[in-house]
Amino acid sequence: MARRRRIYEGKAKILYEGPEPGTLIQYFKDDASAFNNQKRGVIEGKGVLNNRISEYLMSRLAEIGVPTHFVRRLNMREQLVREVEIIPIEVVIRNHAAGSIAKRFKIEEGTPLPRSIVEYYYKSDELGDPMVSEEHITAFGWATTQDLDDMLSLGLRVNDFLIGLLLGVGLKLVDFKLEFGRLYTENDEMRIVIADEISPDNCRLWDARTNERLDKDRFREDLGNVKEAYQEVARRLGVLT
């Protein structure tokens, strides 16, 4: 690993130069963070679990024609992914009230929302990932109107698919965060694709019957048994070995 050129290191993953042009190796760490990196910790084995869970969900999305940066899993902690230009916007899709939206509007956590609500946040730890509007995004050049249309369309499609898939294994998709990137082809054509990961790190996943939290909220809120919750998600998806 030391001989490879490190391209970028984030809170939960490291990106290394890939074996071929246009590829990267995505390494999943055990580090955990919350509240814009104000709370930090290490959850032993989290990287292995998130690698397997994200591989499974990205592969299932590819089966229904949703474009992603995922190519294949390389080992227990690494994936081969396509190199993309990350759009600095987090797209949050909410199906039930939880976290910040529950606090903002004094809604009881777990309350179903009238419809899926989409929010945009500017990716900046320094600024605390502020919520932004489409006007901010286009005015500051973070994404074009067409980019946003593609991101919204893909995001809602992913939401619809994951709600059904997860409910089939007894999990409720309360909300989740997606990141997107611009993938350029050899003839300079561009398409918007799902990037980053889809895992209990960026999805709120509750047991559909008991509302037990099986995601990073267990770390955020000091509920304990964080690794066990991730293991349960992996077990239900059939990827825990």
Provide a concise account of the structure shown:
The protein has 241 residues and is of the alpha+beta class.
The CATH architecture classification of the largest domain is 2-Layer Sandwich
Q: pLDDT average, as an integer?
A: 95
Backbone CA Rg: 17 Å
DSSP strand content: 25-35%
The major β-sheet equals:
7 strands, antiparallel
Secondary-structure content class: alpha+beta
How many DSSP-defined strands? 14
What does this structure look like?
With 241 residues, the chain is α+β, with helices and mostly antiparallel strands. The protein folds into two domains: 6-82, Phosphorylase Kinase, domain 1; 85-225, 2-Layer Sandwich (D-amino Acid Aminotransferase, Chain A, domain 1), CATH 3.30.470. The protein is built from six helices and 14 strands. Strands 8, 9, 10, 11, 12, 13 and 14 form a seven-stranded antiparallel β-sheet that branches. A five-stranded antiparallel β-sheet has the order 1-2-3-7-6. α1 (46-63) runs parallel beside α6 (226-237). The longest helix has 23 residues, at 145-167. It is globular, with a radius of gyration of 17 Å. The two termini are 24 Å apart. The model has no long low-confidence stretch (mean pLDDT 95).
